Amino acid sequence: MSDTINNAKSKMEKCLDTLKANFSKVRTGRANPHVLDAIKVDYYGVETPVTQLAGVKVPEATMLLVEPWDKSVLNAIEKAIRNSDLGINPSNDGSSIRLPFPAPTEERRRELVKDCKGYAEEARVAVRNVRRDANGKIEREEENSEDDVRREHAEVQKLTDSYIKKIDEALKAKEAEVMEI
User: Fold this and answer.
1) What CATH number should be reported for the domain whose range is 3-25+105-179?
2) Between these two residues, 32 and 159, which has the higher pLDDT value?
3) Which stretches make up the Ribosome recycling factor domain (predicted)?
């Protein structure tokens, strides 16, 4: 396998990893600690992720428990979560914050599926762009004969098809997870 194809494979793998990271941020009826990854708290003048200021536990399927290591930052964490676009109302008991995850309505689940399809399409486009770049590089390599070019194009296409299939499978699994009540 040529360097161009190996390079394309690693870039396609990164596209798939990005898709999975985007999917992990989509809020389903289950409590997922990754929904807090993007929330930042003003901690002594520095924007710090919640996950660096507190332990995040999942005591039950529909609840997250945020326990800050420094109790003085408890109210700031609560405020940051409340101001985020999660749509969750945190409850503060003085030492920790509870985040109940109510099951989303049918309409909200359909919107979430739509978002997931958008993420999947972005990943497909990214994979196709990697394919285009790899094919262009193969064509520019002077030592390749026409047969070599054709053979490597076929390998790149096979690789592209396999990653598009992985993206579709990931989307199907996420759709099932979101639509589950």
Assistant:
1) 1.10.132.20
2) 159
3) 19-179
For residue 1, the model assigns a pLDDT of 56
CATH code that applies to domain 33-100 = 3.30.1360.40
Whether 170 contacts 178, CB under 8 Å: no
Q: Compute the distance between CA of residue 95 and CA of residue 156 in angstroms, rounded to an integer.
A: 54
25 three-state secondary structure: coil
Give the SS3 label for residue 90.
coil
Q: State the Cα–Cα distance between residues 121 and 115, nearest whole angstrom.
A: 10
Say whether 33-100 and 3-25+105-179 share the same fold. Answer: no
Q: What is the pTM assigned to this prediction?
A: 0.72
- Locate the domains of the chain by residue range: 3-25+105-179, 33-100
Task: For 47-66, give the DSSP string.
Answer: EEEHHHHEEEEEEETTEEEE
Rounded to the nearest 5 percent, the helix, strand and coil shares of the chain are 60, 15, 25
The distance in angstroms from the start CA to the end CA of the chain is 45
